[in-house]
Write a sequence for this structure.
């Protein structure tokens, strides 16, 4: 992009529109930057695993802050919403909930 064009090129008005558009874009970023700054300074730190309570994927089933290895073994997926099923077992399909291992008698 050139700062100025010759009058004979006919690009002066396009250059001015482009400059006005970039200024408008820069101004529209100010509320976003202000919101990020205020939230960073005054916001409450989220320390819950699933702050909304309706997470559907496995990312919401891990601890916050997450450990070095999120899962010690590969989780067994029994539904399309495993984290939701763990947090809300009353709505989950009973077949999708983890079952207790059978008790084994040890002599």
């Amino acid at each position: 992009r050139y700062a100025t064009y010759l009058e004979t090129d006919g690009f002066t008005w396009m250059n001015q529109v482009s400059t006005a558009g970039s200024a408008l874009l820069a101004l529209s970023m100010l509320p976003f930057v202000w919101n990020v700054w205020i939230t960073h300074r005054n916001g409450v730190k989220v320390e819950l695993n699933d702050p909304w309570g309706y997470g559907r994927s496995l990312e919401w089933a891990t601890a916050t802050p997450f450990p070095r290895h999120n899962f010690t073994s590969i989780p067994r997926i029994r539904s399309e919403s495993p984290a939701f099923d763990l947090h809300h077992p009353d709505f989950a399909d009973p077949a999708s909930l983890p079952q207790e291992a059978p008790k084994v008698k040890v002599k």
User: Anything to note?
Assistant: The mean pLDDT is 80. The two ends are 83 Å apart (CA to CA).
